Amino acid sequence: MQLSTHDLPVPVSPARLAQHLHDELAQWLTLALMQLDQARHGVDPRAVERAHDFVKRSLRATRETLAQLAEPVPVLELDRALLCQIRQLHLGNDIDMDFVLDGQLPALPPEVAAVLLGATQELLVNACKHGNSARIETRLCARGARLSITVRDLGPGLLGVPLRLAGAGLGLARLRHNLARIGARLRWRSGSRSGVQARINWVAP
């Protein structure tokens, strides 16, 4: 099952294309770099093989992006797309990952589904990078017009990092901007021994 986080219209704006490249190509390359770092330090003998797989996915994402400049690709149902995404990250990083769907997911506008999927992917990749290989839990909760997506790792938490700076990177700054575009908000919570929890909240208009 192929996963695409955006439905790229024709013509494609530079901002939309940049976001798509970030959510697809840059994320896979980031994961490949993580695996190469592990291989360099002798942490995991399978890291090189996984890095090779991520580079192949990056190349595929590049080709898919070029193809989408001419033809839109629809977003999968949000719950199915999230499950597919989590399975891919689990297989590529050998990290325990859980997914829970709580409630009946309503039909979502395509743009909303695309933004929520891209944002969750960003949070999952960050959890893989900073969670110290701890279990990652993802919960998609639907209650009437309210929807939330929670990504929580069981790692050491953001030790010594103020929460106001935790999401200050370029990728997360873009994530917040995109969420604001659909009326969604991102909240963070971290403890010294309880990992990091990020929650996206969206209410249907």
Report on the structure:
There is one protein chain. The protein has a single domain (14-203), classed as Histidine kinase-like ATPase, C-terminal domain (Heat Shock Protein 90). The chain has helices at residues 14-40, 47-68, 78-93, 110-130, 163-166, 170-181; strands at residues 97-102, 136-143, 146-153, 185-191, 195-203. It has a 5-stranded mixed β-sheet with strand order 1-2-3-5-4, covered by helices on one side. Strand 4 (185-191) and strand 5 (195-203) form a beta hairpin. Helix content is 50%, strand content 19%. Helix 1 (14-40) runs parallel beside helix 4 and helix 3 runs parallel beside helix 4 (110-130). The protein has 205 residues and is of the alpha+beta class. The protein has 6 helices and 5 strands; from the N terminus they run αααβαββααββ.
Number of helices: 6
CATH superfamily: Histidine kinase-like ATPase, C-terminal domain
CATH architecture: 2-Layer Sandwich
Strand content: 15-25%
Largest beta sheet: strand ordering: 1-2-3-5-4
Average pLDDT reading:
75
Return the domain count.
1
Shape: globular
Low-confidence segments: 1-11, 160-168
Total number of β-strand segments?
5
Counting helices, strands and paired strands, the structural category is alpha+beta
Order of helices and strands: HHHEHEEHHEE
Question: What fraction, in percent, of the residue positions are helical?
Answer: 40-55%
Q: Biggest sheet, in brief?
A: 5 strands, mixed
The separation of the N and C termini measures 31 Å
Using the coordinates above, name the CATH class: Alpha Beta
Question: What's the CATH topology name?
Answer: Heat Shock Protein 90
Radius of gyration: 17 Å
